[in-house]
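The protein record filed below.
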Amino acid sequence: MKARIRGTEIWFDVDGAGLVPDGPRMVEKPVAFVLHGGPGGDHSYYKPALDPLTDKMQLVYIDHRGQGRSGRGDRSTYTLENNVEDLEALRDYLGLDKIVLLGASYGGMVALSYAVRYPQNVSHLIALVTSAHAGTLERAKEILAERGTEEQKRVCEALWDGNFQTEEELIHYFDVMEPMYSYSWKPDMPKDGLERGIYSIDAINEGFSGFLRTYDLRDQLHKITCPTLVVGARHDWICAPEFSEEIASLIPHADLRIFERSGHEVIYDEQNELFDVVRGFMTYNG
């Protein structure tokens, strides 16, 4: 489905019933906007991994503007600012009141930014393996220098410069870097998830050559008023766990969990353990 909002088309998909029977009454589940990473990726990374969470939430998967199945346009419009305002327009378009935000990596940055700007519209915030400021990039370079192979260091040059030339080059980057992203990676793992994604070099280049270099929410995180779950991963190379710790320290009453056997792909590395934490968070705070 596509919503025509703010001069573009935002693609979204809905998983799970929003209204469910509970004995003699019908109960409305929380609606969660699920925000993918990148920038330059799409929502398919989450499917079918997040399906089990439909017992607690109705999931609305979203492709950011210029990415995945959403409309393309002027590359200069592919910004964090527009991603935030697109979410607000989509919330209004769908006639929703308060929403849950679940975002990982860059999606977590969008979720944090939205919760700072529109705290009254967020019931719960789940920020996975993300950061509140651009310092994560320099730290990632240090970790890459310590752990990475020569080929991994080479393919990352296009990332740091925001200079991917083709979609195939970006796919090759993710293929080479997968052992860094996933703590549970094995050479014989299937590449279905990588191959089914729709990638946008314009979006990732715009982010890494521009706004991600100046991104900083640290002095605004105190504005977030909803229950917040912050998840970090001990072996995350690109959003190291200290950045999750920092986020949790700056959001009032945030719940911090660091997963010890996970990399950036905590959704896959410790899936059952992560979902137990998310379900507990939604149950306790719901």
The chain has ten helices and ten strands.
